[in-house]
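User: tokens in, sequence out, please.
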């Protein structure tokens, strides 16, 4: 379980570093991810 968790954490870190070059860009990416989760939750009601 620990190796899988470590691998997922590393992958998430690498994706966040390559997805955007600035802190503002990272904030926008996180906001978009949160919005997608919210939309999925609303659809499942």
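Assistant: Sequence out:
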């Amino acid at each position: 379980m620990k190796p899988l968790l470590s691998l997922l954490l590393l992958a998430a870190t690498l994706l966040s570093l390559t997805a955007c070059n600035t802190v503002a860009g990272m904030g926008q990416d996180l906001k978009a991810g949160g919005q997608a989760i919210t939309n999925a939750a609303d659809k499942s009601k």
